[in-house]
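User: I'm curious what two different proteins look like when written out as structure tokens. Can you demonstrate?

Assistant: Sure. I'll show them one after the other, since each token string lines up with its own sequence. Here's the first protein:
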Amino acid sequence: MRILITTGIFPPDIGGPASYAGLLGLELSKRDISVTVLTYSSVLKYESDNAQPFKVARVWRGIPKILRHLVYFMKALSLAKKSDVIFSLNAVSAGLPALWAAKFRKKKFFVKIVGDYAWETAVNKGKTFLLIDDFQKSKRRGRIATLHKTQVKVCKGADGVLVPSNYLAEMVKNWGIPEEKIKVIYNGVDFKSLEISKEEARKKIGVAGNIIVSIGRLVPWKGFRMLIKIMPRLFEINQFFRLVIVGDGPEKKVLESIVKNMHLENKVFLVGKKTKEELALFSAAADIFVLNTAYEGFSHQILEAMAAGMPVITTAVGGNKEVIRQGENGFMIKYNDEFNLVEAIKTVWQTEELRERFIEEGKKTIEYFNAEKMLQETIQILTS
């Protein structure tokens, strides 16, 4: 059997789809399935591609946008000829050209939906201030309407739509996609924690004190502004608290300005994107993981925090409610709820028994949400 995986990113790019494509390609190859990964790329060639047990085809991002998408489609069309199944990891930049290629070549086509790309674009472009659930009921205009129609078209044209949570399954169903076409496969992690003391990890990252870590793309709905804002109140609880934010994105300059204006340069650290290995080091150094987010389809970061042995505080939104059992393996609060966010951090920090319970139950949680289970369920659908 031959499978073509189409994605927007792949190593050396860092991100969920990049890691997922690599994991899936590796597992399929172990089963003697021929795999090709087609990706947009910041580099023309990448040395590690030669070490992969599957082929990697790259479309350089330096090509002008319209031409770039045309080149991607032509490559997808060519690769589809020698494939039995096409699996796209997004519904727009990779999904639409992959769908066209699949239809032309009369191949099976599957797509993975991990969020609403139209909403994310609207927020990033300042076209909406609505949270995702309210956005689903709103009228879309212009480019945002086109993006929404595109992702719906791709889902309707697919033989199957894979989603990582029941929350996203319901959202996709409300786009008019038949329920029988939608399959929930929870994300899994293969995160390896480091056998290193907190003190040693803190020395390596250059941050002393009791670290609160938050990880994610620097976008408005991740709530990083509020985390920075509450730091003076957290110093009243523990003067040695330090906030480390891992990630990159369009909000970076805004967050840097907030840190500077609040004179928190030595208390709040925006450390940028990190590799998987570097992320394990930052996780080993941290005492508490906080994700103050307005939306999560299903969070890799929460699972990886649990795997790293951090107590988790997050919000009761999206797929989070399918992972967190309130008061057992973590705390959930409302998005940007300043008072309860401070209180949750205070409670976890000051109550050792609760902190240890969250850590212990978190480790039990990831036994269910593991990468092997995710890959097996995905492969079963793609090869059946």
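Here's a second, unrelated protein for contrast:
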Amino acid sequence: MLAEQLFSQYRYENCAVVALNDGGVIVGEQIASWLHCVLTMLISEAIPIPGEGIDFGAVSQTGQFSYNSSFSPGEVYEYSSEFHGYLEDQKRETYQRINRLLMDGGTISTDMLQGRVIIVVADAIS
């Protein structure tokens, strides 16, 4: 149903579908099929704060780190100070794990996305 709704708005656009998770690939495949466009996946992995049950942020397939947006700057500073060594180790290990998963050339090409309408999808469960 979503693919059909997007078709009426984007059928004449130069689009690309970017899936954020495994379930997003399933949803994105339907959209990409309807729009006859490219489908790719952005891989990221969360880094939890030890003993807190919450994620401090996530590392993307390019190695870029993004902080959890629910934290205030003060909380980011506090956690960064308290867990500095642990968090830096986790960032490095996570990036290496993603690279092993993707192998060479597995990252999203910015050239492929340049000048396109980007449709970002995920499943509703994550």
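A detail about the second structure: The chain has two domains: 2-42+108-121, 44-102.
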